[in-house]
Design brief:
Layout: E1 2-12, E2 21-28, E3 31-36, E4 41-47, E5 52-55, E6 57-59, H1 67-70, E7 82-87, H2 102-113, H3 117-123, H4 131-139, E8 145-151, H5 152-160, H6 171-186, E9 191-195, H7 215-228, E10 232-236, H8 239-248, E11 253-257, H9 267-280, E12 285-289, E13 296-298, H10 310-316, H11 320-328, H12 330-341, E14 359-363, H13 377-384, H14 388-398, E15 404-407, H15 414-422, E16 427-428, H16 445-456, H17 462-469, H18 471-476, E17 493-496, E18 502-503, E19 507-512, E20 516-520, E21 523-524, E22 526-531, E23 534-538, E24 541-542, H19 557-562
Parallel strand pairs: 1-4, 1-5, 6-7, 7-8, 8-9, 9-10, 10-11, 11-12, 12-16
Antiparallel strand pairs: 1-2, 2-3, 5-17, 13-15, 14-15, 17-22, 18-21, 19-20, 22-23, 23-24
Helix pairs in contact: 5-6, 6-7, 11-14, 13-14, 16-17
The protein binds zinc ion.
The site of zinc ion (ZN) has 6 residues, from loops.
Amino acid sequence: MSYDLVIKNGQIIDGSGIPGFRGDVAIRGGRIVGIGQVSGDAKKVLNADGLTVAPGVIDNHTHYDAQVTWDPLCTFSCYHGVTTVVIGNCSLGLAPAHKEDQEPLASVLSHVEAIPLEAIRAGVTWNWETVPQYLDALDRRLGVNVAALIGHSAVRRYVMGEASQDRPATEDEVSKMRSIVREGVDAGAIGVSFERNLRHFDWNGRLAPCNLATDDEMLAVAGVLDDLGTGVIQVGGDRKLGVKLTKATGRPVFYGNITQQAVAPELWRERLTEAENLMREGHRAYQFVMPRPGDLRYTMKMAQHFDAMPSWKSVMLLPPEERKQAFQNPEVRAKLREAVEKPRDTRVAGEFTRRWDLQFVHQPVLAKNQSLKGKSMAQIAEEQGKNVLDAFLDLIVEENLETEFERREVNSDETAMKTLLTSPYTVIGQSDGGAHVVFRTDYSYCTYLLSHWVRERQIMSLEEAVRKLTFVPATLFGLLDRGLVRPGMAADLMVFDPASIGPLEQGEARDLPAGVTRRSQLAQGIRWTIVNGRVLLDNGKHTGDLPGMVVRSGGPVSTNAAA
Ligand SMILES: [Zn+2]
């Protein structure tokens, strides 16, 4: 027997959840063809002694629709072990598109997902019109694999033009939308995405097309998948609509996320109960959980979350030098203290949570304060024997308002997060990779899960975490020949050191078209990332190869197995 690639002596964690075992993985023609003791010639051998060999991560919710056209690696997801991304979420997408739809689609994607419009304009070469043409265009040049949903807003725009942002559709228009979805799924799109969210509009302030659709229109469009007996549905923004689509169709529906929030402590449990109840009734209604804590950073030069308290607002509006003086003034300080010691008014949006235990010093300025790094203000106040507000204001005054804090009020309660992450009724993911590029780096959720939750907190086994990152999304999204290390499966693999894998500190990259800057985050501990049997990244460096492909819709299992 001869092989293209053999990975020797790794600890194989196959994605199914069974205990890892030592062995080799043999690959030929992009597929896994042998596991265990492999003998025979190989064009290339990788020694994985001391490393874990697992399926590549399937990132189940991204917005790389534009970026993938100029960046076939979908950075920075690929650096975290991701080998397949799902695009076309939240009703958005760049196909189908007539020439005159290109700018409006770019505008809505840019505004809703916070991707600078100049980057999309400079980066995208529109060499497609229909969904099948878009998939084929992507397929010619991919580093990672891409599975695409068809965005309802794009379809609506294509059929209705300007009117898509003004009015409900006619029966004739809905039937045209249905044919487009049918044609796209026939060509390999994995489903369709919807959104209802009145904060979603374009740069002219006009609502995204999806917001003008009635429930009936969405039910009719989604019904195409029932007719075809394949495909998944993603719904953003409107949880009731998500549940309605779940009950009306027989298809898997992904309709929201469950977040633990300091401001609404009961919310996560209510949503988890909803997920459990729907699934126990037999519905395929899935909600995502993001393993990373919301890590909003601020300094007291620029912070909005004190503004809802009038005494704070008037101080925060002062120029920095006067603001600093005000923070030192005993009378002002007394007023500020009175405000934060009053119980939080839950009717006021954005009211400061009073959770000093969730305000962490991220970066102190002075050398003498470096020991405060990583501590919460509550802990610092206790250590200093001070009132917490004094400890906070003394620090920021001493450091000229430049101390960097991190607010961890979302997904930061570790007991709640353990329940959510280990529940069989939640799906881990929704990175929004490619979106919110200036603020967020949630695409590091997979390396964070493996380092923080598995290695440090030990809330689940490595086998279980790998299963949740690979086999579970592959199964739910109908990517039936991925997500397992098993003969016959596509050879998408990540080979990593479980003792060191993890995200690195965030940085900034000026790597978007038109010289646009974004937040960046890389990872450590991943030795090789392999896509369709070929090495994409070697120690975090791109090999130059582009082995990715468009992953076409599930359909009957036999068509996949035969491929
Ligand atoms: Zn989204």
